[in-house]
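step: validate -> pass
step: tokenize input -> pass
step: predict -> running
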Amino acid sequence: MQTIIDIKDATYKYKGARNNSLMGVSMQVKKGETILLCGASGSGKTTLIRLINGLIPHYYNGELQGSICVKEKDVSKTPLYNLAGTVGTVFQNPRSQFFSVDTDGEIVFGPENIGIAPKEILKRKDNIIEQMKLNKLMGRNLFELSGGQKQRIACASVAALLPEIILLDEPSSNLDLQSISELGKITRKWKEQGKTVIISEHRLWYVKDFVDRVIYMKDGVIANEWAGERFKKLGEKEIRKLKLRPLLLNEKFSNILCFKSGQKSFKRMEETDSIILKDFYFSYKRKPYIFRKKKFTQSDGEHLNLCVQNLAIPKGKIIGVIGSNGMGKSTFLRCICGLEKDCTGVIKTDGMVYKGRARIPVSYMVMQDVNHQLFTDSVKEEVLLSMKEKDEERCYCILESLGLLEYKDTHPMALSGGQKQRVAIASAVAAGASLLLFDEPTSGLDYSHMEKVGDLLKQLAAMGKTVLVSTHDPELIERCCEYLLCVNNGKVEYV
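step: predict -> pass
step: emit ->
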């Protein structure tokens, strides 16, 4: 087969970073191959993808050595617009690649930008919508979509360009299990169409059966490589030794996350010592008002994106918040901590009642897109910023518990997606709030760091903190969640 990607002795160091992200990496990719890149967060997978799509060196500043050729073109000497029709990329954070404000416009933007005829653009759009089952997402504002729904639109916008090479950087990180399964089907279809697909991924169960080759990265080098058939036969001990996520899903937890009946095996809410959420009502489509703002009530019914009349949350416990993409999990968390100003609601705990803005000091939220809450120029300063009284020794203890101490002087934006996530979690721990909210805290994390996050959540619960964690991650649920709340169309109930 023809070589379509040829990388020789690539070494790269980001501007401001202390260490190289890649060191002497060489690899060849044949046309039509499907390759899985796996390894710990920060091992160099995303950097390798940026070399192939030209973001390095054309967008990211740094020191690059070696050669990268795509279809016999030197990437360092080829403008990005000349690579656009050849290489398409779905990023870990889909918002970073959006150019439109609505779903229809985003799907057709790429073909319009490279001058495709209008009839062909519409044909491509219709085909993509049908293939990826996106009818329910058409005509929507991108900023009203959940993280998983945005990821599906990002995949569609790349597919509409019909590129020969498709790069996927942690594409499943914000998706529910059903959407991940659909993503696997789409990727298989791209493979059948003869496209070259490279997937950087921690979740292995949905890709292991169709990848041709698996490349394992560690500390910026290619540490191991397997044929696809050989890789999926690796035993559980071998996978665990490599610090990778399991090749098979735990059936009990996958059934719960897919909302199959007969799986209600979690604790029921019986504790009397609870945090009470009362009259939490919210809608993104607020009715117009002339003299004063109208408060939402339960009578607004189907117009509400969140409707919680009375909910008891056990203190000092870890409660998983599950639900399909777009069902209101992030909205639920944002309303609790006061990020949605139009949300009514009262928090009752320890004999105190917290209304409106008074709810803010009681809770702290780690967002799904952590870039929104990283403000300083070093990891250490980021954690210290969250403390009421700065304490460097405590800061270092928190960073060490999350495997971040060596990055204490690094700029947060120079870190990988998984490392940024851990910095935000460190800030939440440092803040000292009694109710901690985590929105997909393990998205983009490898198995080892997922375990560390789970153990940290258990430490927080042992300290008397109450933890609500929105997740699609069955391994995290198995490791630390004692209760499960299911959010479905804004309604919340225990599983």
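step: describe -> Residues 254-494 form a domain with the Rossmann fold fold (CATH 3.40.50.300).
step: cleanup -> pass
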